[in-house]
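Methods — Computational structure assignment.
A single polypeptide chain was analysed. Its primary sequence is given first, followed by the predicted tertiary structure written as structure tokens.
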Amino acid sequence: MSDKDVESRIRDSYTEMTDRELARELDVPERRVEEVRRELGLNRLAGDDERLEEMEVSKELSETDTNRIQGYLGEQLARHTLPEIRREVSSVLGSGWTVAEKAELLPLDSAGSARLGDTYGTSKLEFSGDTVVFSDLGLEEAVEQARERAFVAGKELVSNLVSAEFPSIDLVLHALKLSGETRRTLEFRNRFDPAFESEKRDLDLPLVEDGKVVHVEVKTSTVSDPGDMLTSLQRRARSHAESSPYSEFYTLHVNLDLDDLDVPDSFDASVRRHDV
């Protein structure tokens, strides 16, 4: 069993088994279980003589942790201003463009699909070509979400849009110029229900004649020009947008210094079991 598997199993069993019991089940030395539990901060949750209902936790935050927390807050600010971002992009590009938060492009003349942008968490709907696999949704909900997310485009355009997308940008949208609809047969499958028989649906999906990847980088500071704060990767994305017909680059400048939020260097907490 790999170290990663051992760590995962120990994490999952921290309230159920003692060090000795878990070491015996995993066929690893008891000291190994103790070390992993100590690294994970779980060594006091279960012992050979008692099972604790509560554990006190003291955690230190590194500079990297603090930056990640501040970055996460910045991204959430972008999520809350998404309608305004869409309006600005639509205003710049002019009429005839649809701004999509996330899009699934189905090539017009071949199988396969391309997911554009971040799915913002675990998706309940996943495309694999013309097959749609869904979970935690009813069939009709899955069909409706597929109708909202799926677009059909020429193979070359799909390739150009995928190539134009830069990673590690706070928010990625897609501006699509539509030209009517085309009928596509999609097969729907339930990921976790073996009794569900796959079902095919004919959907009229928007046909894309042109598209652009819209990169939005969030900068939270009181400086006047957010462009001065771009990283080398973000500058490359900006430069690419200046020369590529398939890419746009925007900044969302929030006039707020997140350093003023005073993210602590450490914090105390407790983990407690509550009876159902």
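Note: Residues 3-52 form one domain.
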